[in-house]
Specification:
The structure is a homodimer. By secondary structure, chain A is mainly alpha-helical. The first copy, chain A, has helices at about 5-10, 20-40, 45-60, 65-70, 75-85, 110-130, 135-150, and strands spanning about 60-65, 90-95, 105. At the A-B interface, helix 2, helix 3, helix 6 and helix 7 of A face helix 2, helix 3, helix 6 and helix 7 of B. The structure holds a DNA duplex (30 and 30 nucleotides).
DNA sequence: GAATAATTGTTTACCCTCGTAACAAACTGC
DNA sequence: GCAGTTTGTTACGAGGGTAAACAATTATTC
């Protein structure tokens, strides 16, 4: 563990906040999220509502419990999100024949279109906030973030 | 813009949530933050309180306004954070001779020690949550996140 | 087949983080 | 001296999230 005196000067436990990945992750996330909200505009989607719609489009007839699990939030928290999307007629709660407990979520035509439009807007926004990075750098960042997620314990 | 039919199959606007940097950034941040709280334990620091203490240690006699600016939050939000740290006697609000408005923040001896201990814990936690990445990968991720922050418009 | 356990959606209550608006006190520029 | 600005502070509300309890329904176990 002990190192040369010369190295100690720059390695003597004087870790800075700026050297922590977690700190930089947080600050970067705040920037991107803030840009996301601006890109979505006034009546636009919040990140979590957009995520819920996106997953419902990708996995039609998904259960609320399954969607909550996929989003990493509690079932109780998802209720308001689905309420909001249903009130805008972007998806519907459908009963399934076999199990009278579950609510299968199905996107409406308007929901599909709203998702497409929002996704286009998000892609344009990402083009913008990462404009100082090359395509290979963006891909590298994406891969590294996926690797972080892959290591999740839960 | 138009591409060959062969390419269109994999590039026809069917962007997935998982392909968005922002989405992966959020999920990765949630994992790291959650680990941070676990690592700090019951009476430990929240991320923002830790950040405030760290910056006070690094920049003693910093003004509350300057600290808020550095943290990217409003002055009003910092009051409760400083209150908490002051109530634990980890820092003190000191009046400065020249300007009777400002409160210069100075870490106490206990504050310095608490910071050192918390930082050690955070470093151990980062060692853990990024354990499936090589040192060079971690450095790459750090550099890329810094580049994202560097492009901030605000 | 009856009893027990688990799952689903929901409501309610609560916590944390943050922003906005207003304010008094103090400072600055002119 | 006076308008404008800065500093710390309070009050209020929005937003995102968890935890606990609950009825309805389904699964499991004996």
């Amino acid at each position: 563990m002990s190192k040369h005196a010369l190295e100690e000067a720059s390695d003597n436990g004087a870790t800075d906040l700026e050297d922590l990945i977690g700190y930089n992750l947080k600050r970067a996330y705040i920037i991107v999220q803030s840009g996301f909200r601006d890109a979505q505009g006034e009546g636009g989607f919040s990140p979590r509502v957009f995520t819920a719609l996106a997953l419902t489009v990708k996995f039609p007839n998904i259960t609320q419990s399954a969607l909550a699990r996929k989003m990493g939030i509690e079932r109780s928290g998802l209720v308001a999100i689905v309420d909001e999307l249903e009130s805008k007629a972007l998806l519907a709660r459908a009963r399934v024949p076999g199990d009278r407990r579950v609510q299968a979520l199905v996107p409406t035509e308007a929901g599909q279109q709203a998702y497409d439009a929002a996704m286009a807007s998000v892609r344009a926004h990402e083009q913008d906030v990462f404009s100082n990075m090359s395509e290979s750098e963006k891909k590298m960042l994406l891969d590294l973030l996926r690797k972080v997620r892959k290591n999740e314990v839960s």
